[in-house]
Write a structure and sequence with these properties.
The complex is a heterotrimer of chains A (about 120), B (about 55) and C (about 900). Chain A has about 120 residues and is an alpha/beta fold. Chain A has five helices and five strands; from the N terminus they run βαβαβαβαβα. In chain A, strand 1, helix 1 and strand 2 form a beta-alpha-beta unit. In chain A, helix 2 packs parallel to helix 3. Helices cover about 80% and strands about 0% of the residues of chain B. Chain B is rod-shaped and about 30 Å long. Chain C is about 65% helix and about 5% strand. In chain C, helix 1 packs parallel to helix 9 and helix 7 packs across helix 9. Chain C is mainly alpha-helical and about 900 residues long. Chain C is rod-shaped and about 170 Å long. In chain C, the strands form two sheets. A five-stranded mixed beta sheet of chain C has the order 2-4-5-7-6. The chains are: A alpha/beta (about 120), B mainly alpha (about 55), C mainly alpha (about 900). Chains in contact: A-C, B-C. The interface between B and C is medium-sized, with 30 and 37 residues.
Chain lengths: ~120, ~55, ~900
């Protein structure tokens, strides 16, 4: 079963996404901030990362950068969650190596589809 | 320089009158005085001018 | 041996020598190796001051009047002493303005006035002609003495027909000489080098001759000065002859003579000519200023001895003027008297040459030229060069002047002694002095003043010296002198207004100067100079100003317009082609001559200068004016150029000021720009933050809503949970929106408050109740301390409650995790009530104390404390502060005194009624 890491500082959002992922048949691990997220990646080896950009402390972008700079996680599928509607954010994320993005508030259907798409790619 | 010239200027007329009052001998002091004063003035001027030209 | 032939031969031989020297001088000049580049030559040329009068007349005057003759030489000495100042200034101006004569000088100073120039020229002619006659007479007399000795000269003199009068022939020869060497070129800026060389030679000859006879008399005829003086002492009649008493007019006469000689030295046309016009180098003045006085000293050294000797030996039969001749003659010498004669000839011819040149220049430039210019016929008919005309005019003038001099001598001269004529001329020439000297230093002297002063002085001079002269020679009624005109004693020519028994020259000088200077100053004060006059006045008085050294001034003197072609035509007509070429080629513009191009100001100025050199400033101006359209630079500009220093400073100061202002403005603009950008950025940020904050709860709401919609089978508890979240987040969202709206209203000043008197204590209690359950949830221990009860303030109930709840809520959030404690206190502070809320949390660091009031600011907390903290919107404090501010109070952060964490205090002014402390 694929493992998905959900990183967001809003507990309720984490809760909702957690439910969605589990319903879609994935295993879920969560993190509240950037530090935790990196720790989780190390010890849980998720197959996909759902990463909120606006995190306290280390920002989502920093996490993304760091992950991409390491060989182990360079190819890890990452989907950015962003509340800002601005193009700059999206572009920056894509430039840093994110595979996809989704804006809050999101459509649950869309979210699940994006996750599935990336995971299927991974595992043909 | 200007001061000197003016000093010389003043020197001539009044002093001449004063000197003439001096008691005379034979021919009188006056001509002698005049000439010598004149010579002195010329000499001073010459010295000043040449000195200045030497700057 | 003293035959006519030898004498004549020597005389004309000597004149021939002069020709040779002059020719040589001119040739050298053309070759570029000028003789008169030497200051010594310059000094010697000035010695033309010593004319035949010096030669013969000094002795005569000494014999009669004692040492007073020396004054005539002491005066010039003084003048030369002032050379570095006065004369140098004159020389500089003359060089710059191409002055050709004293008439030109005066005319130029007073606005290039034609009338003034003509007046001066006329006056000069009248005053100097007798002087020229004097010289000719001296030649005649000395010649007669030489021939007739030991008989008196009178024999010969009586018999003379005019064609036998030697002086006539001398005059004619001189005319030829002058024409040859004095009118070679028209341009006065080209020196008459040959002539000056000849003059210098003559001065040398004079000196040598005189000293020779002096030495002879003193050391040969007597055995040295001691012996001579001893003899004099032995003769009672002569003992007092050298006292001051002998001088006419006593002390005043002494001073008067000094002043007269001083002034005349500067204004005699021949002196002006050699001193100023012929000067090639300003530096020569320094040498000349003592060399020339020295010359005078030397030549006068033997005058007194000769006079005394003559008196001792000759008795009254001999004319003292001729002592220099008769003494050696009486000793039986032949050669020495001849030498003396040549010396005298030298002195006389020197004077005549220079004076005639000066006078002819004046006449042609100031009298004839203006008349010609006015005659239209001349303009149209001459297509060629007027240069030739001008030279011709000058030559004719020379001949006429000499003839005039001769006539005067032939007809009138007899009745005068040499000295008298000389001094009369001096006094006449001195009339120029006020206009010239005062004009040199006082910018306010105007043309009208100068003209009237000049005329007045001249008239007084005529009346006090000239007329009496005529009376004395029998042309007028002698009673004029003794009784005054029509018997009015007060108006006696020799004793105006009762000043009788004065030396006549001093007397005349006094009155004429009084009239001259008085009217000059007086009229000048009441008249206005024309712009051109002002310009010229400035140029003259400030001639030594360093700023005028640059040619920049001269090139900017003209503002008018004319084409190069017109200018060239003008110059060719009046100056001739070669000079015109020179003028054009010297122009600094490298471009070739183009007839239709406008002439530069510099070119115009050069052209004017060139014309002035030949025609005089007045005529030059007229000519240039006829061609140029426009005005010459006005006084303001000249003064401004002169005042450049102060003006530059002023400009600099103003520039500094302006640039500083500009810098300031630039700064202000920059900071304003910055602020705008800042605000823009803040706005963007705010919008971004708001959108972020709003989207966050929305995300949960939508997500859970979709989940609930899409999930068919859902455990009830989960369903309840999710629905609860939706509700919760919706509330959160609406709260947020409220806050944002509040903030927006606060910022735009549209917050509606309902200020009513209320009890803060009661409100506090109420708020506590409201938040009580939340605190209980969190397990917060609340300590309430209401010192002031009631606490009446003016406020909006709902809003105030909102603030207090916000404070309590915050305190609760940030209180210590394990044992959260919050303390609320309400107390009075002077005329305010203060409500403080403390917590025992980590506190707020000093630099964050203000930042907590920023929008969306979230207080940084240690990240290793496990999370779960309830998050605020970050807007509570800003809104609270805004509300309190609106109510006239303050909200700030302090250190918590009791609990050790943060303390937020609000202060509100007490309601007026509650002013009484409880």
């Amino acid at each position: 079963m694929a493992k998905v890491l959900v990183v967001d500082d809003e507990p309720n959002i984490v809760l909702s996404i957690e439910f969605l992922m589990e319903q879609a048949g994935f295993e879920v691990v969560t993190a509240e901030d950037g530090e935790q997220a990196l720790a989780r990646v190390n010890d849980s080896q998720p197959d996909l990362l759902l990463l909120d950009i606006s995190l306290p402390g280390i920002s989502g972008f920093d996490v993304l950068e760091r992950l991409r700079s390491e060989a182990a996680t360079a190819q890890l599928p990452i989907i950015m969650l962003t509340a800002h509607g601005r193009d700059v954010e999206r572009e920056k994320g894509m430039a840093l190596g994110a595979d996809d993005y989704i804006t809050k508030p999101f459509s649950t259907q869309a979210l699940v589809e994006k996750v599935k798409a990336l995971l299927i790619e991974e595992q043909p | 320089m200007a001061l000197v010239a003016i000093a010389l200027l003043l020197f001539c007329p009044p002093l001449i009158i004063v000197v003439d009052r001096l008691p005379s001998f034979n021919v009188g002091w006056l001509p002698l005085y005049l000439f010598s004063a004149w010579a002195v003035v010329i000499g001073l001027t010459a010295w000043l001018m040449e000195h200045r030209a030497g700057h | 041996m003293r035959t006519e032939l030898i004498i004549l031969g020597t005389a004309f031989g000597y004149l021939a020598l002069l020709f040779v020297v002059a020719a040589w001088g001119d040739r050298r000049a053309e070759q570029g190796r000028s003789i008169i580049g030497s200051p010594t030559v310059y000094a010697l040329s000035i010695a033309v001051y010593c004319t035949a009068w010096t030669f013969y007349g000094s002795v005569g005057r000494a014999a009669e009047y004692g040492p007073s003759f020396l004054l005539i030489y002491l005066g010039p000495t003084l003048a030369m002493l002032m050379a570095p100042f006065v004369i140098r200034k004159m020389v500089r101006i003359a060089a710059r303005q191409r002055i050709s004569s004293i008439a030109d000088f005066i005319s130029a100073r007073y606005g290039k006035s034609t009338s003034l120039g003509a007046l001066v020229a006329l006056m000069a002619l009248i005053t100097i002609t007798p002087y020229i006659a004097l010289q000719l007479k001296a030649i005649t007399v000395s010649h007669a003495v030489l021939i007739n000795y030991p008989d008196t000269a009178n024999a010969t003199l009586m018999d003379e027909r005019f064609w036998m009068d030697k002086s006539l022939w001398v005059a004619l020869v001189l005319a030829v000489f002058i024409i040859l060497f004095g009118t070679r070129h028209l341009d006065a800026s080209e020196r008459h080098e040959g002539m000056v060389a000849a003059i210098a030679l003559e001065s040398l000859v004079k000196l040598v001759a005189f000293m020779a006879v002096g030495v002879f008399v003193v050391f040969v005829m007597f055995e040295g000065p001691a012996a001579l003086f001893a003899q004099v002492a032995a003769t009672p009649a002569l003992v007092d002859s050298m006292r001051l008493d002998n001088a006419p007019g006593g002390v005043t006469g002494w001073v008067g003579m000094l002043v007269l000689a001083f002034l005349a030295f500067l204004t005699l046309p021949r002196q002006f000519q050699v001193l100023v016009v012929e000067n090639v180098d300003e530096q020569h003045l320094t040498r000349a200023s003592w060399l020339f006085p020295l010359y005078m000293l030397l030549i006068n050294l033997f005058v007194i001895p000769i006079a005394l000797a003559g008196l001792l030996l000759g008795g009254s039969t001999d004319d003292p003027d001729s002592f220099v001749l008769t003494l050696p003659l009486s000793a039986g010498l032949e050669g020495l008297p001849l030498l003396v004669f040549i010396g005298g000839l030298s002195a006389a011819t020197g004077m005549v040459i220079v004076e005639t040149i000066a006078l002819s220049t004046m006449v042609s430039n100031q009298l004839i030229m203006p008349l010609l210019l006015r005659s239209r016929r001349l303009h149209l008919s001459t297509r060629g060069e007027l240069a030739g005309w001008l030279l011709g005019i000058r030559r004719v003038a020379i001949v006429l002047i000499l003839l005039l001099g001769y006539l005067y001598h032939a007809l009138i001269g007899d009745s005068y002694s040499l000295v008298t004529i000389g001094l009369v001329s001096f006094a006449g020439a001195a009339q120029f002095a006020p206009a010239m000297l005062i004009g040199l230093y006082w910018r306010g002297a105007t043309r009208q003043g100068a003209t009237i002063g000049l005329i007045a002085g001249f008239l007084v001079w005529c009346y006090t010296l000239l007329l009496p002269g005529f009376a004395q020679s029998g042309w007028l009624d002698a009673a004029l002198l003794t009784e005054g005109p029509w018997g009015i004693a007060w108006l006696m020519p020799y004793g105006l207004f009762g000043l009788e028994n004065w030396d006549i020259y001093t007397h005349s000088l006094l009155w004429s100067m009084l009239a001259n200077v008085g009217l000059l100053v007086g009229v000048s004060l009441f008249t206005r100079p024309t712009p051109l006059e002002q310009t010229q006045a400035a140029l003259f008085t400030e001639a030594m100003h360093p700023n005028l050294q640059t040619t920049a001034l001269s090139s900017s003197l003209w503002r008018g317009q004319t084409t190069q072609g017109a200018l060239k035509e003008l110059l060719v007509r009046y100056l001739g082609a070669p000079t015109t070429r020179r003028v054009f080629s010297h122009s600094s513009t490298k471009s070739a001559y183009a007839a239709d191009e406008p002439a530069t100001a510099e070119l115009i100025t050069r052209a004017e200068q060139a014309l002035a050199g030949s025609l005089g400033s007045a005529s030059a101006r007229v000519l240039i004016n006829s061609v140029v359209r426009g005005e010459a630079l006005d006084i303001e500009s000249i003064l401004s150029i002169l005042d450049t220093t102060s003006q530059t400073l002023e400009y600099n100061r103003r520039l500094e000021q302006k640039s500083q202002e500009l810098v300031q403005i630039g700064e202000e603009l920059r900071s304003a720009n910055e602020r705008l950008r800042e605000l823009d950025r803040l706005k963007d940020e705010f919008v971004a933050m708001v959108s972020h904050e709003l989207r966050t709860p929305l995300t949960s709401i939508r997500a859970f809503a979709e989940i609930l919609r899409d999930s068919i089978e859902l455990p009830e508890e989960k369903r309840q949970h999710f629905l609860g979240v939706i509700v919760h987040e919706s509330q959160r969202l609406s709260r947020l929106i409220e806050e944002i709206l509040d903030l927006a209203r606060l910022e735009s000043g549209r917050l509606t408050l309902n200020p009513v008197p209320l009890d803060l204590a009661a409100l506090a209690r109420h708020s506590i109740d409201t938040i009580a359950h939340l605190h209980k949830e969190r397990g917060i221990e609340l300590d309430v301390n209401l010192e002031a009860d009631p606490a009446m303030v003016i406020g909006d109930q709902d809003r105030l409650e909102q603030v207090i709840i916000n404070l309590l809520d915050n305190a609760g959030k940030f209180a210590d995790r394990d044992q959260p404690k919050v303390r609320l206190a309400l107390y009075r502070h002077r005329r305010h009530f203060r409500l403080s809320v403390e917590d025992n949390g980590a506190g707020i660091s000093a630099d964050e104390r203000e930042r907590v009031f920023e929008k969306f600011h979230q207080i940084q907390q240690d990240s290793d404390i496990p999370r779960g903290r309830p998050k605020g919107s970050g807007l509570g404090l800003p809104i609270s502060r805004g509300i309190i501010a609106h109510l006239g109070g303050r909200l700030w952060v302090e250190d918590a005194k009791h609990l050790g964490g943060a303390c937020l205090t609000l202060e509100l002014p007490a309601a007026p009624d509650a002013a009484n402390p409880s």
